[in-house]
């Protein structure tokens, strides 16, 4: 079995909360050596984002909560106070020998500490320096801070998410998880990997990568945003309705709910047969998908009545036989109990000092020759400070002790 894809790559991670840490975690999963810099005493802001927390062996309160755990495995935690000159010097010394430096401070913040790209570039000309911000390094909003929900609103995602107009509860709605953070993390990883390839294969130099949440959410709206760019319209909120094939949406059954997506005319005919109404497929109003889109409310209402007559298990089985895409609306317990999800091993177990069988979500990438099998627990705050300062920078115990006493680490 070959070494992991990013073995030998060293990353200095000054990111906090979610988008940046997720990106660094992805790279750590791929084999990169990730050194995470955290504030002494408090650490990553995510550590304070509330319960549930792991229970330590003595039952004491700690800062290892689910928000932090989801984005920080395969890293080493080093506590450094970058507001102190000695702390800034530690970061600069570490930056000299890394391939990548990542940060998600507000634009201009790190320049005050001599940790901005231009300064670090003088110490390490080949460095890939990735800045993750809310609004980017340029533009009138660049100095602003923001969180995921702000960008779902400003980027247009909320305007097209939620119940259909006229239905109870209609209006803009946020997507449940911090989806813009996650997508921004993916974009950051892609940018870093591309810059590393350019430097190694194309003989390029190091460079600064500017990734932001607002750009990411706008780009992610793809065909929805393209509709507006073509004819000036903003697509209406569609609830659970599909974005192309019709009928598509969540339908209530006798014992729960089911998601159906009819993608073409042949699937529609087979779905009608499963529901005991084959004649619907020859109705002039419904024969072609374009017709069904025009008469969307009517066909959705008809299908809603037909689904209410049957149980989920029966419909799923019959629709699967007919080759019509459908699936149950699962909660998380059902997701991780699903036999296919279990076969794909999306839940991985690791050994954590506070919990000997801690469950994490595995990296979604699967490699044939370099499988991602190493999942080291998200580090406790400052767990590797002494190790990194001694091994990477050659600091002696007395110097480390003094830095500890003065609040630098």
UniProtKB/TrEMBL annotation:
Keyword line: Transferase
Alphabetized GO MF terms: CoA-transferase activity
Recorded superkingdom: Bacteria
Signal peptide: none
Name this protein carries in UniProt: CaiB/BaiF CoA transferase family protein
Species annotation: Bradyrhizobium sp. LLZ17
